Amino acid sequence: MEQKTKAYEKIFLILVFAFFYLPILYVVFFSFNSSKSLTTFTGFSLQWYEKMFKNRTIMESIWYTTSCAVIATVVSTIVGTVTAIGLSKSRKAFREAINQVNNLPLLNPDIVTAIGFMLLFTSLRIRTGFTTMVLAHIAFCIPYVILSIMPKLRTLDPNLAEAALDLGCTPLQALWKVIIPQIMPGIISGALIAFSMSFDDFVISLFTTGPGVNNISIYVYANVKRVNPTINALSAIIVYVITIVLIIVNVVPMIKERNKKKNEQLQNA
Length: 269
Fold this sequence. Notes:
Order of helices and strands: HHHHHHHHHHHH
Shape: globular
Oligomer: single chain
CATH class of the domain at 57-230: Mainly Alpha
Number of strands: 0
CATH superfamily of the domain at 57-230: MetI-like
CATH topology of the domain at 57-230: MetI-like fold
Mean pLDDT: 83
CATH architecture of the domain at 57-230: Orthogonal Bundle
Largest sheet: none
Low-confidence stretches: none
Structural class: mainly alpha
Radius of gyration: 23 Å
């Protein structure tokens, strides 16, 4: 009976992975198709990648998407880290109140947040464009960073900062050399979440951007009803980049940990 249950669990797991990853593999596979067909593979070709890089509109959308995501990630990570550290040292009632407010953007539907930003910029008579899109992305990325860092701060010894000050550190040194290294995994995970949320966003970007400023999501939405294989090439490149980043993020710490263990073994020997 247990063996049958385990077999069913494996089959279910395989089906779940197939449901998630087969569409991605399908897009990557047909990005090398020599024809426009999205159902019949007629031969290997890189022509859609070449046309994608020659398409000025696509390259501009990639530039806007990447620039916006990088700026939003850097700013939201810095602001979110400082805010999370400040909240960890605040009174419980104040901290809980701010945490509830911080959760509102996470619980709100994107369309509500998007309309809110649009009305804000309109009421202030701010011309929508790249700047307003970046500001909106920063605003909705900060809560994710705070949410990623707070659990790491809860695990720290509350007397750690005071001990660093007693040993001669200035408040800035205690923050930079003691607190930050301890919560670095939370900061990295928060930054990755912020980058992915900004890079992938469509609804908020659509409502806060202006004429001539389109990110990848808006471009794909505008061309989704057309048979345009360059979108497959664009999607495939995004998959390549994300895969490389994930490999680096996961492999580099493993290599560092392995080298650290080897050095400790050599020192002990």
